[in-house]
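Reading a protein record of the kind used here takes only a little practice. Think of the row as the fold of the chain written in a discrete alphabet. With that in mind, consider the following protein and its fold in token form:
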Amino acid sequence: MGFKIYTRAGDEGKTGLIGGERVFKNHVRVESYGTVDELNSHIGMIRCFVKGEKEEILLSEVQNDLFTVGSFLASSPGTNFTLPELGEEKILKLESEIDRLTLELPELKHFILPGASLQGSQAHIARCVCRRAERLVVSLSEIEIVPKFVVKYLNRLSDYLFTLARFLDHKNGGIEIIWKPEKPV
């Protein structure tokens, strides 16, 4: 029959990490890589909006990078399992793309609200999930060793997703919605 998707190994509320350790499914490590997986799914949705465009290529790379980040996070501390390398060039590429997209955008003078376009709103959702993943990874790093690159990558990725949201709004004819705080009573 081949590979079965269910193993029944998690029926007691625990899951296995790379390296064999079993932890509860609500462990901050599992929450971290689960949120990175959620982020990857949202980025897949954005890719559907930018098929055949330059942004699709970078988003495809980001999805692969996030799978690697998830692998780091899903590994037991001290495991000898060999994982793919992620280096500073990944962050530099995100920064380069932020700069490229920013050149095509009006100057940001106000806080903006999501909702100017469907495509941009999806990028804002991904940005929020990315920030949550970053917060969870920081929490994990307070109790276990996490490669410093992971937090830095997620931080820069959220900056990219914010810029991409603005770019997609602009490209799709959306007018940025400026936050208008109410005056105190």
Notes: The chain is about 55% helix and 5% strand. Strands lie at 14-16, 22-24, 112-113, 177-178. The chain has a mean pLDDT of 92. Helices lie at 28-49, 54-73, 88-103, 118-141, 148-171.
